[in-house]
């Protein structure tokens, strides 16, 4: 393993000079700095993380708080994680992933232990008790999600209300007059998860605006849950011709259940789903989607965090505009 002494010897300087170049705590001539940096690059030297943290009072670690619950679709969630990790590496930061549902106490524990320089919070609720705690901490915090009152915290998310409206308007433009929403698991609504409430309100508003008969049902992510959800929807609306699916975990069993009931897509029923593009393409019928922009959201969250770590305090709420990608699962109603 290359040491700081090896770098010093290669650059023809003392070990303390190399340390000063790394920490930036003392002025070094530009020529010496270039020589040291060239040696670091040539030898492939990587500063010891613990020593670097002691020297700079920084850990070069971001904490991503992402509670793993039974109702969460892990593959979709990992798209956000991958984006956060990849963007953080561009800033020479690592990511500490915290998956226990510890609530406000968990935020305090992470902050008090100085394990990370900043906190990124996912699975945000409308009335989230963690928000006030995050505001009180000395380290920066950014929300991937939008609570009712974010205060002075920066937030980034898909505009889920606008996404729901795009789905309903797409079906209405194709002549569908009776549509239904297959929503997240009931516990997601009971918990007051922000994205679920915003999507439901957008769906209801757009249906009212376009004069579309609409119903919505929460759906447990299981085959039994899908069958029960579809039974209830068809009892409400026997002449249903359009489905909006806002529950990635049930897409496969829902398509299977529609097939078993001889409900052809899109001849008998059109389906539009909120899901990553790559998950929509690998279906028996390619799905019309409003894609989840996990890469853009994760990147934006890290960029907001790094600005705050650099001392730039400019809180913002950034809701990404949805786009709709038409495919073969939706068609004009004849």
From TrEMBL:
CDD domains referenced in this protein's UniProt entry, alphabetically: HTH_LacI, PBP1_LacI_sugar_binding-like
PANTHER family on file: LACI-RELATED TRANSCRIPTIONAL REPRESSOR, LACTOSE OPERON REPRESSOR
Superkingdom of source: Bacteria
GO molecular function annotation: DNA-binding transcription factor activity; transcription cis-regulatory region binding
Pfam families reported for this sequence: LacI, Peripla_BP_3
Name used for this protein in its record: Transcriptional regulator, LacI family
Domain (HTH lacI-type): residue spans on this chain: 2-56
Keywords, alphabetical: DNA-binding, Transcription, Transcription regulation
């Amino acid at each position: 393993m290359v040491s700081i002494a090896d770098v010093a010897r290669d650059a023809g300087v003392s070990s303390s000079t190399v340390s000063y170049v790394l920490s930036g705590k003392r002025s070094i001539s530009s020529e010496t700095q270039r020589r040291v940096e060239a040696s670091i690059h040539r030898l492939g030297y990587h500063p010891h993380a613990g020593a670097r943290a002691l020297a700079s009072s920084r850990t070069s670690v971001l904490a991503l708080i992402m509670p793993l619950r039974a109702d969460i679709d892990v593959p979709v969630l990992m798209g956000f994680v991958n984006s956060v990790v990849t963007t953080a590496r561009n800033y020479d930061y690592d990511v500490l992933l915290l998956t226990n549902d510890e609530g406000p106490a968990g935020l305090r524990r992470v902050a008090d232990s100085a394990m990370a320089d900043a906190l990124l919070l996912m699975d945000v609720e409308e009335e989230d008790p963690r928000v006030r705690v995050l505001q009180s901490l000395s380290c920066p915090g950014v929300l991937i999600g939008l609570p009712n009152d974010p205060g002075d915290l920066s937030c980034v998310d898909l505009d889920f209300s606008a996404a729901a409206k795009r789905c309903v308007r797409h079906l209405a433009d194709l002549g569908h007059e009776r549509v239904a929403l297959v929503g997240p698991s009931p516990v997601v609504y009971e918990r007051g998860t922000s994205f679920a409430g915003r999507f439901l309100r957008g769906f209801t508003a757009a249906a009212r605006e376009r004069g579309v008969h609409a119903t919505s049902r929460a759906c447990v992510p299981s085959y039994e849950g899908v069958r029960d959800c579809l039974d209830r929807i068809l009892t409400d609306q026997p002449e249903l011709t359009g489905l909006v699916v806002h529950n990635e975990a049930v897409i496969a069993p829902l398509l299977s259940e529609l097939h078993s009931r001889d409900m052809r897509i899109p001849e008998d029923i059109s389906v539009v789903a909120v899901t990553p593009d790559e998950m929509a393409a690998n279906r028996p019928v390619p799905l019309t989607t409003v894609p989840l922009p996990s890469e853009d959201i994760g990147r934006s969250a890290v960029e907001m965090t790094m600005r705050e770590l650099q001392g730039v305090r400019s809180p913002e709420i950034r809701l990404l505009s949805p786009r709709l990608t038409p495919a073969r699962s939706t068609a004009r109603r004849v």
